[in-house]
Amino acid sequence: MTESCMYWERVSEKIYLFTSDRYALVNSVAVLTEAGIIVVDALPFPDEAEQIARFLALRTGLKFHSMILTHHHMDHVYGLFAFPESLDIIAHERCRQKLLDVGETSLQEARQSDPIFDQVTLRIPTVTFTEGEMSLNAGDKVFRLFPLPGHTDDNIGIFMEEERILIAGDAVMAIPIIADGDWQQALDSLKYIREMSPETIIQGHGEVILRGEVKTVLNRYITYLECVRDKAARVLRLGRERKQLWNIPLEDCGLERVPLGIASHRLHVANLLSVYDKLKAASSS
Ligand SMILES: [Zn+2]
Questions:
Q1: CA 269 → CA 36, 69, 175, 277, distances in Å?
Q2: What confidence score (pLDDT) does residue 255 get?
Q3: Does some domain include residue 282?
Q4: Tens-place pLDDT, residues 226-235
Q5: How many CA atoms lie within 13 A of 146 on its CB side?
């Protein structure tokens, strides 16, 4: 049994951030509105999610309004079960489809590797949007939901216009991960966010990006993805073996190993392999 290492902080008076130390610093966000609490993503472990639900109810005395899911990955989805069943779960339609397609199967796999997930019931989004953007009004707050694909094709961002705070899901994370997504889309999403110039970014994993550092951090991630493409293209161009990609350190692309606390190098290599394979497929077709 792993010790619970969830911790929380306040991003502003109305925004709480919960981070799991047990799973890649994944984040869950709660926004307090006059209409109730809106929860964006839930942590993967049942005990952490239950702790958050209890904490919010007790501390704020507010009811829950709804939940928003940034994308279908288990580390954002599983904890949703700990919140009232009557709540709407808002997401992109592609997220709902993905969960209907692969959700139960991957939950079974998770249960086999750790029985702690026996407690989890998979929750499927109830309100989705397909084209363009969606606006969510909750009391005094307006949330703009819009696609930020790349990490996955269903990833969305949630922008709070007034505060200029962006909850980015995994479109922004301490090491951009595109392994099962699309490199070009990931890059375009980061550039789109840079253009929006939010004041604060709550990323899917890792610490909050604060006013004054938003541009620098986004530029670092953009440079990283461009570097991954250049390195992969070089190995391909020189006709070197695919496994040579393992020898390219993360630091060569301007990022450090520490931030995610897990196998950073492995994630980085997965990015290189993903881009390499796509370039190779494109060059031979
Ligand atoms: Zn993810």
A1: 42, 27, 11, 12
A2: 86
A3: no
A4: 999 999 999 9
A5: 12
Is 245 contained in some domain? no
How far away, in angstroms, is 233 Cα from ligand 1 center? Answer: 25
Residue 217 maps to a domain: yes
Q: Is residue 237 part of a domain?
A: no
Distance CA 271, CA 263 (A): 13
- Ligand 1 centre to CA of 194 (Å) is 20
Integer angstrom CA distances of residue 64 from 29, 56, 87, 89, 190: 13, 9, 7, 11, 31
pLDDT in tens, 47-68: 999 999 999 999 999 999 999 9
Pick the closest to residue 248 from 261, 267, 220 (CA basis). Answer: 267
**Rounded to the nearest whole angstrom, what is the distance from the C-alpha of residue 279 to the centroid of ligand 1?**
23
